[in-house]
Known about the structure:
- The chain contains 14 helices and two strands, in the order ααααααβαααβααααα.
- It is mostly helical.
- Helix content is about 70%, strand content about 0%.
- The chain has a two-stranded parallel sheet with strand order 1-2.
- It has helices at about 5-15, 20-25, 30-50, 55-75, 85-95, 100-110, 130-150, 155-175, 180-185, 190-195, 200-210, 215-240, 245-265, 280-300; strands at about 125, 185.
Amino acid sequence: MTIAGAYAACRSIAQREAKNFYYAFRVLPQHKSDAMCAVYAFMRRADDISDDESMSLPDRRVAMQRWLEDWRAARSSGVTDDPIFVALNDTQKRFAIPDSLLEELVQGTSMDLEPQPVSASGLQTYATFDELYRYCYLVASVVGLVCIRIFGYTDPQAEKLAEKTGVAFQLTNILRDVKEDVERGRAYLPLDLLGEFGVSIDRLKELSSGAAIYPRERAMLFTLGSQAEQYYGSAQRLLPLIDRDSRAALWVLVRIYHELLHRIAKADSDVFSHRISVPTLKKMWILLQGAAMALRNRVTA
């Protein structure tokens, strides 16, 4: 397996699966785009193992552990025929990405495989926003901390801003996916937020089954959206700290995710009657703007 072939295999995975992320990859310089595809392919493999409902949870835990051990062996020996590991090893060397960040990334992906607190209604839950923030850190902020090493930065403030930007993205995903998550036995809306608005887990189940949404439930979702909106402020402060040749990629990501949050708000937080998304044409327009920004940045570099 050549390094070029390994990166090509990872790019194929990203093209097929990455959706919003791949739009951002397109406006990066080639070597950075390749690196992002390698990281994404690694994340995707971990997600696929975690979400493989053809296996029981115990079997998924075993599969995840075996895969993780295979990656660790590939890292220590430098010998592997797995194209994702080949490309990722090269990416880590090029961009000084520590194993510890990728270990945290897998830890975040694996959280849904571990026993979590279960409500009386049978859904996995988080008791407080602080607990939810920790989950968001592991599944999204760690990705941001990996990405900025590929993007390039010198100001250490970038790391905290990348953490909060990742939380903004994940809170947006949580809002969009409330219905689907409840159907899969998970409620990422923390119990303290539900309690503040007098919304029960049973009520979330009713909403996911087609019940009409009430003003207090819209207000609850709007409150979480407002929290996400605050974190998007960190994304704006992060942009000028990133190397010029990578700012357009981060801008594209932020614009697409922020647009999704805006569309949830425009739907008056009704994420139950239909799945809210950013239309492909809108994403393409954002990508074109990002490509123009990338070109300007290269000319003026």
